[in-house]
Every structure is written in structure tokens, then in C-alpha cells.
Design goal:
Belongs to the peptidase C14B family. One of its GO terms (molecular function) is cysteine-type endopeptidase activity. This is Metacaspase-9. By secondary structure, this protein is an alpha/beta fold. 34% of the residues lie in helices and 20% in strands. The chain has one domain: Rossmann fold.
Length: 322
């Protein structure tokens, strides 16, 4: 092989949680990941055998539980080959939430998490740990079409952040709009109903229900967690490998839409697809996020996608499009 010819191995995990037949039901999340799967296959050079799709449809064999999602992500990282250029991609559509921070330095702050179908929360620390495991030459791009998704990779640099201009007026539409947010109290109440334990400490419930499969943030005492985070920072091999495209700011919600014609989708996921269809050439990560913001603003949605990554990856081509 010519030394200048670089083969990029492309791997993906796609997760859609609609929470069917529950009070938290959404409608567009599975459609989001199926649309993205088709885009990866037809435009970005991904292969079917290098993708895992987890949905909570009744016929789905692999449900998007917290343990299953983390296992799929670990398998993807394990397949990434040292010494070659790997393009790893994770798309999540579903509920997001914010939980009280367990970091002593942030006693009044909140941390971001996604909500798998079994409520076994996956937090910003779990994604940071994953990024730190990547071999040299590997990028990890994450799209999270969920509420409070800004900052989901802990300590990743903010490139496009909080909206500071005049917000567009709310949309007038025949569509049905549902927030992809689960308030902390609803998550806590759900977990409490399953454990039967009377405590407001969410970690107690998660450990009782999921044991070693609970998120890293909940398995360690606060001070031990801080020590771990410092050690993680010290051993970060490739701190710039993570790229997060969030559906909204950390303090905002993302919309789940059912159009007047019955089509269901996430507003951010649909904006990404719109931008990609309107621009067939390669796009930089920051261009894609800025254009998606413009699409959402034009349609009157009250959410502002963000980009978190290194300066270099802000200018890198989205998913290293061939």
C-alpha cells in the first residue's frame, strides 16, 4: 500500500429511545437514528457490519439500556486499531436530564446525563472516560439530540456555546412538540418507585438497581471521583479526540416533533439532515453546527446547538467525509 494512502476505519453506535407506552414517551428518536444510519451508509463510507443500532422498539433484540449502550461503545472503541485512522461515531436521540453535581468544586452546579430506556443514567464523566481510552489517530464524534446535552463530554472545550443574541419568536405550527427533557425529580421518582428506598440520593438508587453497571460518577465517593478525574486528566493520551455536537445548550431543551403529516423526528437531527442534503460537499464541524442553528432559528425552534471539541477539530471535516 502506498504510504500516503490512509484507510480510515469507520465505526458507529446509534441509539434511539422512544420510551413507548410510558408517560415519558417520545416519537421521533428511532426515526432519527434510522435516518442517520442511511446517511452514514450512503455518504460517509460506513459499512453495515461496523454499526450497532439500539432501539426500544418492541421487536428490537438489543434494547438501549445503560449497560447495553456502554457495552456497545466499549466494543466500538476496542475495534479501533492502534496505528490506523479510526472514525468513531455515536448518535443518541432520547431524553436527557441534569443531576446535582457530585464534584466538590461544583456544589451548586448540575451535570449532564442521557437517559437510557431503563433510566441507568450515562453521564459526562462516562463519556470523558471513553474518550480517554481512544488509540492514537482515532476521533470520537457524538451527536446528542437530547435536552441539556451541552457539555456531555466532561472537560471538552466549548467552541460554539451559549446563545447571546435575540431569540427568535416561538414557532406557530400544527406540529406536536414534546420536550426531550426529564426533570431530575421525575428521574428520581421513577428510580425510587423501583427500589422502594426513601432517599433523594440518586446514586443510591442507581447502585441498588444496576450495581457495577451504574455510571462511574455514582460508583465512587465524591473525593475518590475527584482523584479519578485528576488521574484521568493526567493520563489523557489524546485529549482532543472528542467532538460533541449537542442539540441544545446545557440549560435548554431539545424538541421532539410530530408534524401535521404524522412524520416524527428530533428537531436537531432533522436540522442536521437538512444541512447535509443542502450541502453535498464536505463540511467542517463548526460549519455544520452553525448551519443547523440557522435551520432551527428559521423554523422558530427555541434551542441552540453547541459544539465542544479542540480548536483543531472545530475546523476538521465532519466524520472525515471522503
Amino acid at each position: 500500500m502506498d504510504n500516503q494512502e490512509v484507510v480510515k476505519r469507520r465505526l458507529a453506535v446509534l441509539v434511539g429511545c422512544n420510551y413507548p407506552n410510558t408517560k415519558n414517551e417520545l416519537h421521533g428518536c428511532v426515526n432519527d437514528v434510522l435516518a442517520m444510519k442511511e446517511t452514514l451508509l450512503t455518504r460517509f463510507g460506513f459499512k453495515q457490519e461496523n454499526m450497532e443500532v439500539l432501539t426500544d422498539e418492541p421487536e428490537s433484540k438489543l434494547k438501549p439500556t445503560g449497560a447495553n449502550i456502554k457495552a456497545a461503545l466499549r466494543r466500538m472503541v476496542d475495534k479501533a486499531q492502534t496505528g490506523s485512522e479510526n472514525v468513531l461515531f455515536f448518535h443518541y436521540s432520547g431524553h436527557g436530564t441534569r443531576i446535582p453535581s457530585v464534584k466538590p468544586a461544583r456544589p451548586f452546579k448540575q451535570d449532564e446525563a442521557i437517559v437510557p430506556c431503563d433510566f441507568n443514567l450515562i453521564t459526562d464523566v462516562d463519556f470523558r472516560e471513553l474518550v480517554n481510552q481512544l488509540p492514537k489517530g482515532t476521533s470520537f464524534t457524538m451527536i446528542s439530540d437530547s435536552c441539556h446535552s451541552g457539555g456531555l463530554i466532561d472537560k471538552e472545550k466549548e467552541q460554539i456555546g451559549p446563545f447571546s443574541g435575540v431569540r427568535s419568536p416561538a414557532m406557530e405550527t400544527t406540529s406536536t412538540i414534546t420536550s426531550r427533557a426529564l426533570p431530575y425529580k421525575e428521574v428520581l421518582d421513577h428510580l425510587s418507585s423501583r427500589t422502594g428506598i426513601s432517599t433523594s440520593d440518586i446514586g443510591t438508587h442507581l447502585l441498588e438497581l444496576f450495581g457495577g453497571d451504574a455510571g462511574l460518577k455514582f460508583r465512587l465517593p465524591a473525593m475518590d471521583l475527584m482523584d479519578l478525574l485528576e488521574n484521568m486528566k493526567a493520563r489523557e493520551r489524546h485529549v482532543d479526540s472528542g467532538i460533541l455536537l449537542s442539540g441544545c445548550q446545557a440549560d435548554e431543551t431539545s424538541a421532539d416533533v410530530v408534524s401535521g403529516g404524522g412524520k416524527a423526528y428530533g428537531a436537531f437531527s432533522n436540522a442536521i439532515q437538512t444541512v447535509l442534503k443542502e450541502n453535498r460537499g464536505a463540511l467542517k464541524n463548526k460549519e455544520l453546527v452553525i448551519m443547523a442553528r440557522e435551520v432551527l432559528e428559521r423554523l422558530g425552534f427555541q434551542q441552540h446547538p453547541c459544539l465542544y471539541c479542540s480548536d483543531q477539530n472545530a475546523d476538521a471535516t465532519f466524520l472525515s467525509q471522503p
